[in-house]
Amino acid sequence: MKLSELKTGETGIIIKISGHGGFRKRIIEMGFIAGKQVEVLLNAPLRDPVKYRIMGYEVSLRHSEAELIEVLSEEEARRMGHGREQEVNPAIEVDNSDPDEQPLTPSELTDAASRVRHTISVALVGNPNCGKTSLFNFASGAHERVGNYSGVTVDAKYGRAEFSGYEFDLVDLPGTYSLSAYSPEELYVRRQLVEKTPDIVINVIDSSNLERNLYLTTQLIDMHVRMVCALNMFDETEKRGDHVDCEKLSGLFGVPMVPTAFTSGRGVEELFRQIINIYEGREDENPNYRHIHINHGHEIENGIAEMQEHLKAEPDLRQRYSTRYLAIKLLENDKDVEQYIGTLSDAGEIFAHRDETAARVKEETGTDSETAIMDAKYGFINGALREAGYLAGKKKDTYQITHLADRVLTNKYAGFPIFFLLLLVMFTATFVIGQYPMDWIEAGVAWLGETVSTTLPEGPVRDMLADGVIGGVGSVIVFLPQILILYFFISYMEDSGYMSRAAFIMDKLMHKMGLHGKSFIPLIMGFGCNVPAVMATRTIESRKSRLITMLILPLMSCSARLPIYIMITGSFFALKYRSLVMLSLYLVGIAMAVVLSRIFSMTVAKGEDTPFVMELPPYRFPTWKAIGRHTWEKGKQYLKKMGGIILVASVIVWALGYFPLPDDPDVSRQQRQEQSYIGQIGKTIEPVFRPQGFDWKLDVGLIAGVGAKEIVASTMGVLYSDDDSFGDDSGYNNADGKYDRLHRQMTADVARLHGISYEEAGPIATLTAYCFLLFVLIYFPCIATIAAIKGESGSWRWALFAAGYTTGLAWVVSAVVFQVGMFFL
What we know:
Elements: E1 11-17, H1 21-29, E2 37-42, E3 50-54, E4 57-61, H2 63-66, E5 69-73, H3 74-80, H4 106-117, E6 119-126, H5 132-140, E7 144-148, E8 155-163, E9 166-172, H6 184-196, E10 200-206, H7 210-223, E11 227-232, H8 234-240, H9 246-253, E12 257-259, H10 268-279, H11 298-311, H12 315-320, H13 323-331, H14 335-341, H15 347-365, H16 369-387, H17 400-409, H18 415-455, H19 460-477, H20 480-496, H21 498-505, H22 507-512, H23 520-525, H24 530-536, H25 543-552, H26 562-572, H27 575-602, H28 624-658, H29 669-675, H30 677-685, H31 696-704, H32 710-719, H33 740-754, H34 761-778, H35 783-793, H36 796-824
Parallel strand pairs: 6-9, 6-10, 10-11, 11-12
Antiparallel strand pairs: 1-2, 1-5, 2-3, 3-4, 7-8, 8-9
């Protein structure tokens, strides 16, 4: 009977918890565990919630929740004890009561409940002709009957099987390719799973056609049902020479997958053993069993999250359905789900979120949301099969072009060279194409600065505007074209499907790092901005991989460092070498991440990792509108920084460099800077960075960059805003005549620092510049990144550790490179 049927003062033994997985988990956490005795403290017809006592605590449940908990009352247990133990279903009404019979002892009641609990309801689900009926016939023999669902002319077979002291009530549901509502079979199967709520689902899969059959599996995962997969006809695939790592595939899907051949009975005992383990909650005996979420792309996932906020507010709904499943079905325009959701109070807002998400998906991919979801699921399946080493015979290829392209782009020999070639093309385009609009912006900034200097009267206001605001912000804003070009390439690779291939290519390397290839996605995102990249690690299920990924993310060169890279490389390296220098910085960061992640996996973040699937969606040409929007959104963020933190920091740096005013008005600009507050700070810390060859101006820039890396560029723009401080400037220009002011002043500073002539300081200045870039690459991530690490790791310990180890590592690496380089100069 149901717990809700017990009256005040009555007791019962909990048999099982029905309902949806999320609901089941919450109820079990409240103490409603199979085998425990529960007493009704107060259950009135009009009272809701009902009060119960279990495990010594008082707990309240709503009637609708109590209806999903099956219990055995003392009256039912007594009926079972009168020679009718063969009928262990408490729903069978048999009146053998004896008014003079003594009450059952607690142990007798528990024993009776144990016998009832050993009956497991199992639903068989799978594609047509996958072998479900063969399993059903093999397991149940002749003990079967046929039934149908009310209002639907679809039959299902019911039977019973026994194994290891358990009885299994089997239902063989009609074959279906999906859980949509397009056919009576699909609707029937879906309603059976939701309304009948079997204890376990056996998903029978034709192992000769895994890609197609696993699509239904992904939908069952969305429903969050307890499931075991039977890889049927496995003997035939072995004879044909097919191969798949079943254990690996189980881990990737989070579902036990058992090779079976129902015609011979192979694997049937193991299948039922897995069912018992999951039913009894023996997670330690099912290391591959866990609930996973299939990633459908950022736009769809955002829409799902928005709809779930409203769906989760409906308690009755959560008991029966996975809110994630309902949100996905809404995006698939499922009429049955739409009709159900239309009855909710928040239906209007839910549908508005659905429509907005569908519109964005259509705009970005050129396809409807239903197709995008299907592509994402097949991308998940494709990635899982690739990781599980799946090799099949000749068959029709659903995504033939995609698979042909992957043979080249993910080839173990050609994949790496192609990947690095694309990176080189990206950086070359960033410099070459971005140089033209950069020159125009630079000329505009120079004109504006000159206009302010000649128009306004001499004084602090003019100097602040010309040197602080225009010199600081202008020195950073000129790099907007390069930022946009970089984000254009990254957005294109993400939307086209190549970025996930890059992760697949890096998978082997990532495993050697102690990570999974899926960690490569946040690392790639780190090239854009470390903050959202850190937040993206929350999709990594393994805490070990998630933590290590967060710790090494600061080594990825975010776009905030790009202005510094361009400023320095443009000053000290000829055009033909700039792309290589830039690429070397990215590769150094990746190499450092490889080494450190391996060290962290063996020291600070030990433990077993959890397998993941790297989704390999089909290739597509992204729409220009979608690419343009992604690129411009990043550009807007960059411009907001210009008007916010960069502007404030530039003014502060200018003020520290302008005050106090010197007593002697004829003092040189160089001396004035050295006597200013910022000069005094820089001179104080200069000895700390002497092994790197940095002078005090570079030191101050590094300190300013703690807030945001762009401030390093703006600080240098302020400190090097005047060029009367260098020595012999007899028309010296670098290879391209660009940034010669920064080149000359830094070279002059190096000459003074080492006590050598300006000409002799040239090579040393170039070495110093590269070491400065290495320091910027590695050291302290910005404050926002530290806060993000704290938020995602849940501890300041890891955030401060990331800040400390990166800064120490930057000091060591840059010092070693400089000292070794000086040995050869």
